[in-house]
Every structure is written in structure tokens, then in C-alpha cells.
Specification:
522 residues, 4-stranded antiparallel sheet, 5-stranded mixed sheet, alpha+beta
Length: 522
């Protein structure tokens, strides 16, 4: 079918996009067909400017070739280009997903408890040997056979056997190492359950661990998350100094203290020089104390090397410059100074301002990336561009259309995705419920017949996003509620939303449903 015809045909309800056969074809071969549909609607709407990218795109396709088959090839190539993020975006998104999965796993592992010492935590660094660990587990099996308690002995032997069986799946330790947790845990209802979890971390893990306990040990996994670059901040003014760090999206105040320095004045007469000397002495002592504390907080005593990747000096007076040029300031820290910034405040407000003013230098820190991302989202809302969406239902609608460019979700979003089936009619439906809605049995009954719906599948919505986001051609960003913007996004917008590729009115798509669009062709 000619591409020109397909985008110009229309019916009373709006613009007809494809014939029924073409619609079915695109529905079967591409999960992004709704994106294509929305793209053509916007491109051919009366309000669309002829120079908009979407109209320009359609003109490119039409002018490229008069052959319908050739137009179709170009159309599909452009579809792939528009609905697939770049390799860099994909890499960053995959890394964010891996970090989220590790956080989720740590939370579940830390909550698990067992009877006796039947829970094994095993971590192998990249260059370790599977044969060595297998031999060690064999020795442990012999030792565990001497445990007097029959129940505990069986649990420990069962856990060691599970670990041995799982290690048989590996010929060698993966490049990033191997993490294995196995054992018998006690569920919330008091029943025992065997679990075995093994995976390769998303970055090399340097720890080596083997422990049998009544809990899983996750300290090494937490270190994986903490390995982001850490930056030190010294906020210094005439009232006191604050020492802090910024790592990933975590800001931490290490220490702060206040001072009472004498001000300049014209009094004193013959004692004016003595007063000035006392004032300079107190300033000198203040700078010396700050320099000593900086060494204490930012130099690792075991390695005698800085424990931060960079240092930012901030303040509202000349103290920061005086500190950076002082002989009392540790030369190892002087080499780490990335920026000296002027701030209007001291204390924690000055700390926040220093982070914002150093955004360019700290561009790779997640805290800054998160503030910028949500700031961009709020800007779309404040300007009412129509290129934003929030709430579970509307976000999922635009996602299915392929209109979402950046999908933003709170990393602790507590919503589950249910696949429900009406056993009477055979109809299968997808519903999304939070904890409160899950407790309401009305949500699991048919609204018309009151028939109880059968739960076929239950999955965390976050997990579903992590598995399926690529199909919709968007990038997935997890945010926290630790920044002011993140907290506002979670409280005010439900912790889920997106930035769209183009302006879209969700209500118009509710009216222009698929059934209405094609009912006359059936």
C-alpha cells in the first residue's frame, strides 16, 4: 500500500492510518506500532507546523522514492532508528538497572533469616579457581557431618550440597567474579524454604568470602554500590566550616563546627595594632584547625592517600582561597582540588549550593544527573509543553504508543503488575495495584458480573519495566527521594512519569481507540 495514501486517508473520527491488513501486520511484527501510529497522527494534524521534525520526516520518506516498496523499507529503517536508543544510552540504562537489581537483592537478603547456621554466603573474586572452592566445600561437608543437632546438621549439609551442585555449572569464575547465596530461610508464615541465588556482579568484586550463619552477609555487595567516585566538600566562612562528601546520589555531612572571629573595627587607639594582630592570629588558628580536620576526614590513614576523587572548596569570604594556598593544607589534598566556588550561605545550605555550582565538574555523579533529569521533567510541566506524562495508567498508555523518550520511576515504587483472567468469559486483563489496592478484594472481581478473577501472574512493575523497556524504544531512569527534586517527584507525581518524544494529548487517544478506528472495516 502506498505510504502517501496510508498517512492521508482519514475517517470521521480522525485520521485513518493503515488498512486493517497493514494494521495487523505491524501489530504482529513490532511492539512499537503504536508509536508509529501516534507519529503519523501528529505529523498530519491540522495544527502541525510544516517544518516540525515529524512532518519533515514524512516528506523525506515521500520524496526519497516513488516506489511503495522502497518507501516501506525507509519507513522501517527510520522506525528502528527512532525507537532504539543509542549504545551509550543503553549502556547507562543497563548499568542503572543492574544497580537497582543489586539494591533490591540486598534488601531481600538482609531481611532473610534461618534456623541455626544453615545459610551460606560465598563470594569468589575474578581470578579465583572453582576447583579450590569445590575442594573447600568438600572439607566443610566433612566438618558439618559432626554437628550434634540433627536438624541443624541436615540444613547445613543441604546448603553445602546446593552450593556444590550450583558450582558445577561453572567451568571457571566469570570475569567479574561470582556471588552465591544458598540455604534454608524461614518465611513470614513460619515455614522453611530453600533458596539458591548465584550471579556475576555488574562490576569486578574483589572480596573473597565463605560464611555459614543464620543470615546472609551482603557487606561486599554494598561495597559494589559505594564504589562510585566520592567527592569531598569544604564549606568555609566567617561563622564556621562544614565537611561533607558526595558519592553517587548520596550526600553526607561528616562534621561541622562554629567559630567566633573578631570583626574589623577602627577603635583601639594605641592598641589598634595589637587588636589587629589578635584578629589575624585567630584567623590563622581557624585556617589551621580546618586544614587539620581536612586531613583527618579526607586522608585514609591505612594507605596515607586521599579517600576522595576530588575536592571542592566553597565559602562566602576569602577563607577558602586562603585555605587552598596555605602551607598548612596537606599537599596531597591540594592536588585533589577541582574547584573553588563562591556561595551565599554557610553550613548545609552552602553545601547544597556548592553542589549545584560544581555541577559541570561533577557531571557524572548520579546526584547531579538525578537533579538535572527531574529538573528537565518539571520544566516540561511548568511550560505546559504537552511532552510529559505522570501516573501509572497514562504512563503505560504512552509507553505502548512508543511516545516515551525517558521513563522515570522511583527505585522503591511499590506497585505490582497482575495478569488476571475471567474464568467465565476467558478474558485476560492487566491490572496494576499498590499495597492498599491489593487489600481490596473488589479489585479482583469483575465489575459487571462480580465473578472472582483468577490471578495468573504477579510481578513487580519495576521488574517488568527493567525487562521490557527496550521494546518501547525508551531509556529507563531510576531516581531516589534523597534530593529535593526527587522527593517532590515521588510525593507529588506518584513516583512514575516520563518525558515524551513529541507533544501528545492523552485524552485524544482515549477517544480514538482501536475498536472505534477500525469498526467500519470489520
Amino acid at each position: 500500500m502506498d505510504f502517501r495514501t496510508s498517512i492521508k486517508s482519514r475517517d470521521d473520527r480522525g485520521f485513518r492510518l493503515y488498512e486493517q491488513s497493514t494494521y495487523n501486520e505491524y501489530k504482529s511484527i513490532s511492539p512499537s506500532f503504536r508509536y508509529l501510529k501516534a507519529k503519523i497522527i501528529v505529523a498530519n494534524s491540522p495544527s502541525a507546523h510544516p517544518n516540525t521534525p515529524l512532518n519533515w520526516l514524512c516528506n523525506v520518506i515521500l520524496n526519497f522514492s516513488s516506489q511503495p516498496k522502497r518507501q516501506e523499507v525507509v519507513f522501517l529503517q527510520l522506525q528502528h532508528t527512532l525507537t532504539h536508543p543509542t549504545m551509550a544510552d543503553t549502556h547507562d540504562t543497563d548499568k542503572n538497572i543492574e544497580i537497582w537489581k543489586i539494591k533490591k537483592l540486598i534488601k531481600a537478603l538482609e531481611a532473610a533469616r534461618g534456623n541455626g547456621t544453615s545459610m551460606i554466603s560465598l563470594i569468589m573474586p575474578p581470578r579465583d579457581q572453582v576447583s579450590r572452592v569445590t575442594k573447600m566445600l568438600g572439607d566443610e561437608f566433612g566438618t558439618a557431618s559432626n554437628i550434634k543437632s540433627r536438624v541443624n546438621r541436615q540444613s547445613v549439609l543441604g546448603a553445602i550440597t546446593s552450593a556444590q551442585q550450583r558450582l558445577k555449572l561453572y567451568n571457571k569464575v566469570p570475569p567479574n567474579g561470582l556471588v552465591l547465596y544458598t540455604g534454608t530461610i524461614v518465611t513470614d508464615d513460619g515455614k522453611e524454604k530453600k533458596v539458591t541465588i548465584d550471579f556475576e556482579p555488574f562490576r569486578p568484586i574483589n572480596a573473597s568470602l565463605y560464611l555459614c550463619d543464620n543470615k546472609f552477609h551482603t557487606e561486599a555487595l554494598n561495597e559494589l554500590l559505594e564504589s562510585d567516585d566520592k567527592f569531598g566538600f569544604i564549606v568555609m566562612d566567617g561563622n564556621g566550616t562544614l565537611f561533607g562528601t558526595l558519592s553517587g546520589n548520596t550526600r553526607e555531612v561528616l562534621h561541622k563546627f562554629s567559630v567566633d572571629l573578631p570583626k574589623k573595627h577602627g577603635r583601639g587607639g594605641q592598641s589598634a595594632l595589637r587588636f589587629a594582630r589578635l584578629r589575624m592570629e585567630k584567623r590563622h588558628n581557624y585556617v589551621r584547625k580546618t586544614a587539620e580536620l581536612a586531613t583527618q576526614f579526607y586522608i585514609n590513614p591505612s594507605t596515607s592517600q586521599p579517600n576522595v576523587s576530588g575536592l571542592i572548596l566553597a565559602g562566602s569570604a576569602d577563607f577558602k582561597t586562603e585555605l587552598s594556598q596555605s602551607d598548612m593544607f596537606d599537599p596531597r589534598l591540594q592536588a585533589k582540588i577541582l574547584n573553588v566556588v563562591d556561595v551565599s550561605y554557610g553550613g548545609e545550605n552552602g553545601f547544597n549550593q556548592a553542589i549545584e555550582l560544581s555541577a559541570e565538574i561533577l557531571a557524572n555523579v548520579k546526584f547531579i544527573q538525578e537533579k538535572r533529569l527531574i529538573g528537565k521533567y518539571f520544566e516540561e510541566i511548568s511550560q505546559d509543553t504537552g511532552k510529559y506524562v505522570f501516573g501509572v495508567d497514562d504512563t503505560l498508555k504512552t509507553l505502548e504508543m512508543g511516545a516515551v523518550d525517558i521513563l522515570i520511576v522511583w527505585e522503591n515504587l511499590d506497585i505490582n503488575r497482575y495478569t488476571l483472567k475471567n474464568t467465565t468469559t476467558g478474558e485476560v486483563m492487566i491490572k496494576h495495584f499498590n499495597k492498599e489496592q491489593e487489600g481490596n478484594q473488589k479489585n479482583f472481581r469483575d465489575a459487571t458480573t462480580n465473578v472472582e478473577l483468577e490471578v495468573q501472574d504477579k510481578m513487580s512493575l519495576l521488574e517488568w519495566f527493567a525487562n521490557e523497556y527496550r521494546k518501547f524504544g525508551c531509556t529507563l531512569e531510576f531516581v531516589t527521594n534523597k534530593s529535593q527534586e526527587g522527593s517532590q517527584f515521588c510525593r507529588g507525581f506518584g513516583g512514575i512519569g516520563g518525558i515524551l518524544r513529541y507533544q501528545l494529548d492523552i485524552r485524544s487517544f482515549d477517544e480514538l481507540s482501536d475498536d472505534e478506528l477500525y469498526e467500519d472495516s470489520e
